[in-house]
Amino acid sequence: MLQNIVIGQYVPVESPIHRLDARSKILAVLLMAVVVFLANDVMTNAILVTFVSLLVLLSKVPLRFFIKGMLPIFILIAFTFILHALFTNEGEVLFTVLGFSVYSGGIIQGLFIAIRIGALVIIASLLTLTTSPIDLTDGFEAYLRPFKRFGVPSHEIALMMAISIRLIPTLLLEADRILKAQSARGADFTKGSLKTRLNTMTAFIIPLFVRSFKRAEDMATAMDARGYRGGEGRTKLRILKWQGKDTVAIVLIVLFGCTLGILRYV
Amino acid sequence: MSTIECKNVFFKYTDEQDWIIQDLSITIKQGEWVSILGTNGSGKSTLARLINALLTPTSGAVTVAGKSTDDEGEIWNIRQKAGMVFQNPDHQFVAATVRDDIAFGLENAGVARDEMLKRIASASERVGVDDLLFAEPHRLSGGQKQRAAIAGVLALQPDIMIFDEATAMLDPKGRKEVMATMKQLHERGITILMITHELEEALESDRVVFMEHGKIINDSKAEEFFQKPEFLVERDFHLPYFLQVQKHLVENGFQTNYLLDEDEWVKSLCTSNSRM
Ligand SMILES: Nc1ncnc2c1ncn2[C@@H]1O[C@H](COP(=O)(O)OP(=O)(O)O)[C@@H](O)[C@H]1O
Ligand SMILES: [Mg+2]
Fold first, then answer.
1. Which one, A97, B210, B219, B232, has least CB within 10 Å?
2. Which residues surround ligand 2, an ion (CB under 5 A)?
């Protein structure tokens, strides 16, 4: 079963967005986080929706992955939408619920907010869906590196992230094995009072922890044996390559931001 | 060329402990294939860690190629010269793919990227993981993971490779793969230090060191060592079947000494004109 798991959310398909450097994609997400808030009327929001839809199409990632990413924050979107719908008193009254008059302006404002949040989430998902966790780690490390002189352990953070990512499948495999072993001994994680269930959970968690500590110790020894001595003087196999298309991507985002800005303020 | 030399080494992890290694002396020359046998807790892993400077002796001296493991400035050099492969394949795979994992040691050593690519290519080819370079660890068999670990050490161009029960967690197929790799490394002149519980594996080596309570109680050529299998039987080791049979033959006077190559032994049986 674990043969096919994909770590993180990465969807390994070929697309122009996949081929971009992790750094340009991270920068693009940060820029978009600002740009999104420039949309404030029907026109700019329509442009925003079109632009984000184009990006999604360009990424060649199946739509269901984006929907999956939207689900957890769907409540938040719905909540802000309702809040705006109820408390904005602009335009004409459409109907009344629970003593609140709902204005057309409220509905529109709520929609705009929902679009912004949705766009942000989709943009962020685009980053994780089109960039492998390791590239993402390298990208973050590149941005953290300048802060090293202020004591930010950029290399250590990146290595920690990389090892955690590498260990996810191992941990899942082990969890699965312990679960089966405990079930074979008659443990049932779905029955009984809260107390007995907690007890069964303990029988699951403790071995998982014990093994993890043992592994951490072994791995530290193995790293020492292979000459690990921190980030100082270390070279890297993986290199990030900023290419022409990365510059083009950033320029496009900036141009898009300028367009929205002009439409909004002029 | 790297000779390993331990001189009157004593070691304990904590002050309260008894000596884990006591008054141990041994010299291992470049190119030897040494098996280290011994019961659990006899100090085999500790000895291995003393040799590649993961531990330093409480008293006495360990030198590799003339450099003492006590010398702070030489530690990294020694660890590179004496690479180590551990028991659990999953606990020594650091990076996301085979290629990144082989690179890990090279990155630590500050090897330039071009050189790194060359060394990854040649090391992976030598142990036969060149078609798995982009595979993630959870898609590999135990034997493949161990071979990737060997490639990671090999890329650092060591003179010595220490295997601490590196086959113990593998299935028979994985064991065979790793043993074949060791044989090939030995042929290329790399010193092999192999800690094992498997007598079949020890039979492949040139020299057998047997440890008990932190001391070496036997150090001899493999052919000599296996001439007295009682030594092993007394210590609850399980003799390979063909040696068990030979033991009976020797005890009953049908055979004078033990043959360690199974095929050779069978041949000699078939051609002998004794009363059997
Ligand atoms: N990190 C440690 N701290 C304290 N004692 C240890 C440590 N590692 C091993 N020992 C002790 O040292 C002895 C020898 O261990 P080890 O060298 O691992 O034996 P072997 O590999 O032959 O089974 C054991 O009694 C063990 O309990
Ligand atoms: Mg051991």
1. A97
2. B 45
Provide the ipTM.
Answer: 0.91
pLDDT digits (tens, 9 = 90+) for A113-140: 899 989 998 998 899 899 988 899 999 9
State the pLDDT confidence band at A1, using cuts at 50, 70 and 90: very low
| pTM of the entire predicted model | 0.84
Question: Residues B33-41: what's their mean pLDDT?
Answer: 95
Phi-psi region of B237 (alpha: psi -120 to 50; beta: other; left: phi over 0): beta
* Mean pLDDT in residue range A146-175: 87
In this predicted structure, the answer to whether residue B203 has a pLDDT above a threshold of 80 is yes
Write the pLDDT tens digit of every residue in B156-198. 999 999 999 999 999 999 999 999 999 999 999 999 999 999 9
For A61-76, what is the HEC assignment?
CCHHHHHHHHHHHHHH
d(CA A171, CA A215): 11
- In A, minimum Cα distance to B140 occurs at A3
* Per-residue model confidence as pLDDT tens digits over B228-247: 998 999 998 989 888 888 88
Domain span at residue A64 reads 2-131+235-265
Chain A residues contacting B, CB < 8 Å?
A: 2-3, 5, 7, 133-134, 162-163, 165-166, 169-170, 173, 214-215, 218-219, 221-229, 233-239
CATH 3.40.50.300 residue ranges of chain B are: 2-238
Q: Are B211 and B196 in contact (CB under 8 A)?
A: no
The answer to whether the CB of A212 falls within 8 A of the CB of A171 is yes
3-state SS assignment for residue B175: helix
Three-state SS for B190?
A: coil
* SS3 letters across B190-248: CEEEEECCCHHHHCCCCEEEEEECCEEEEEEEHHHHCCCCHHHHHCCCCCCHHHHHHHH
Task: Work out the number of other CB atoms within 10 angstroms of the CB of residue B261.
Answer: 12
DSSP conformational letter for B141 = -
What is the second-level CATH architecture of the domain B2-238?
Answer: 3-Layer(aba) Sandwich (3.40)
Q: With b meaning 16 or more CB within 10 Å and e meaning fewer, what string describes B111-138?
A: beeeebeebbeebbebbbbbebbebbbb
Assess if residue A179 is contained within a domain.
no
